[in-house]
Structures are given as structure tokens and as C-alpha cells.
Known about the structure:
2 helices; eight-stranded parallel sheet; about 5% helix; 3 domains; mainly beta; 16-stranded parallel sheet
Amino acid sequence: xxxxxxxxxxxxxxxxxxxxxxxxxxxxxxxxxxxxxxxxxxxxxxxxxxxxxxxxxxxxxxxxxxxxxxxxxxxxxxxxxxxxxxxxxxxxxxxxxxxxxxxxxxxxxxxxxxxxxxxxxxxxxxxxxxxxxxxxxxxxxxxxxxxxxxxxxxxxxxxxxxxxxxxxxxxxxxxxxxxxxxxxxxxxxxxxxxxxxxxxxxxxxxxxxxxxxxxxxxxxxxxxxxxxxxxxxxxxxxxxxxxxxxxxxxxxxxxxxxxxxxxxxxxxxxxxxxxxxxxxxxxxxxxxxxxxxxxxxxxxxxxxxxxxxxxxxxxxxxxxxxxxxxxxxxxxxxxxxxxxxxxxxxxxxxxxxxxxxxxxxxxxxxxxxxxxxxxxxxxxxxxxxxxxxxxxxxxxxxxxxxxxxxxxxxxxxxxxxxxxxxx
Length: 423
């Protein structure tokens, strides 16, 4: 019977150089151990060694393995560099999960593997390598080089332990109000396959923020973003929607979610953002562009409560046409269903009324007339003054109601530069 004595576990090469002109250095780990027989006498010769990483001290799942043949053993001591094979080591998980290394020895070269016991916890070197990519325990990094994953979709799958990450299991701690996670997407153009649970769209989990480096730096090409949950957030990136005539950002019935500093470009979106029945949500400082041959809709707000839509640019920048049986284009609309205690402030809305067909005319902002909302300081462009703000039920300009009993607005500006009558 042989036994393995651990001498050291050292960082060999795990420096990710960020200076322009340098490429990332591969992450490898130097491992030194000592083999003895059952009496404690050191072994000599060459041995085949197999290294296996598990997610548990006993039992568990195999996350990685690598075999090294004809390893010199002198006075029991061997030195090996792990991670040089074609399968990368899962060392980036070490800051979030306990990982354990098992060593197996083939003494004869005939494939009769003897498993050394116990497994050893991956510490020191693996943890040092992991810190290159993790600011703190609850951040995953997406980058073309040196990140945890190369797409936001796969980062979410990794966090939840689904799809290609089923064997490793969900990361800890579970996203919650007390332990929120951030998925940090570095600069670059990312073609997203969609999360395992979302098909062609990226579904952000509850209490997770998907954050880029700014819409001029980070671009996600995706079929859409799912935010119909609690505590979800999207900020500082460019969404290039690859599906036509679909909802781009789904916040239907969301609670305490927000979209900030995001640029969206979509063909015939219906709508760009769906905030139907959302509560305590914010959509602020975004730039939304709808284009294509059919109707394009900005933000749907029917049934929304205690939420804000502020300082956005909504640009329906094509001579858009509503097809038969569908409504025309609009910037913001509650589709005739009342909002409760909401604010629509300081938005710039460009929409086109010429060439519109179908039963629904295009308009800037449509209100139900029966909700409670403040609609003020909005600016309209390229529309017509009798369609800038309308009652979505009647199609007529909104009527003034007593304070606290309906939508009210001051200092909105018509498409021709004149002031909209306060209501």
C-alpha cells in the first residue's frame, strides 16, 4: 500500500496582464508531492499519475481530470504542472465552491490505478488565480479573454448550475436580497446563445444585475432580455435585438427591477420594454430605437404601479406602418389600462404618423384617463400635435381631472415646439 504526502501547492503562472500589447497568460498550477510505501519509505522510478478535481471531499462529481505519464519520482518527490492539457482547470470556481484534488497512481503502467487518500482541498494557488477575475465573492466576469465565461448567457447558466454546468452545481450563495450577484460584461461584441432556460433570450435571475461597460463599449446580440422577476437589473450596455416583432426587454409583472443607461436597437419591436403590471420599477436614461416596415412600440405600461419612466430617448425613426389587425407605433402607452402612482418625466419621443395603415394610429404617449400618474416635461418630435399625448381609449387629447383622480401633466412640448395644454 502506498500513501501520498502533500508537500506544497504553489502558483506557477496565473498572471493576467492587462497592459495593452500583452496577451493573457494561461493559468496553470505547480504541484509537488511525495510518494511513499506503507512503511514510509520513499519510492523511486517513473509513475503514471492522474489528477482529478471533485466538488466534495468524498463522493461528489468529477469536474476535471488530467493524466501525466512517466512522471519521474526521485526519493519519493515528484513535480508536475497542472492545467497544460486541452481541458481548462475549473480553478475560477475556487472562490465560490470548495474543490478537492484526488491523485491516482499507476505503478506498473498497465492501467491499474491506485487512488491516494484523502483528497486535498485546493487552496493558495487556485485561490490566487481565482482572484484575478473576481472582485468579490458575488461577481462573475464575462470577457473574450480571462473571464469566468465568454458570454452573459453562460455566466447565468454557471451561476444557476444548469446546462453545461450541471455537474458543478449552483454557485453559492444563492442570489437573494441579502446576497445579490453582479454579472460584469467587459468591453466587446458578444453573440449570445441565450440561457438554458430562456431559449434565444437571456433570462436574468432574481437579485442579479447584468452590467456592461457602457453602450459604446459592450454589445450583446440577443433575442431579448427576461426581467420578469424580483430585484433584476440591466445597465450600461447595448442590446442589439436579433428577433423581429418581439418584446426586447420583458418586465411584465416585475418588482423592484430597473433598466438604466441601456441602448436598444430592434426591428418592429412590440414593444421594446413591456412594463405591464410592473411595480416599484425604473426605466431611466436609456436610448431606444425601433425600425423596420411594421409598427414599432416603445414602452408598454398597462397596469404599472409605483414606477418611473424618466429621461429616456425613444426614437421610432422609420416611416412605420401598422399592419391590418395591429395597432400603430407609439412611444409610451398604457393601452387603456390605468397606471397607479407612476411618473413619466423628461422623455424625448420621436414617432412618425405619415404613411400609417391599420386600425391603430401612431402617437407619442397614450393614457387611460382613469389612472393616477404625473406626465410632465416630455418632448415630442416629428409627430402631429393632436397625437403627441392622447387618451388611449378615445384617441382624443387627455382631459383635465381633479388632482389625485387621474393623469396630470405640465410643460410637455408638442412636435411643433408649442406647449401641450396642461391636463
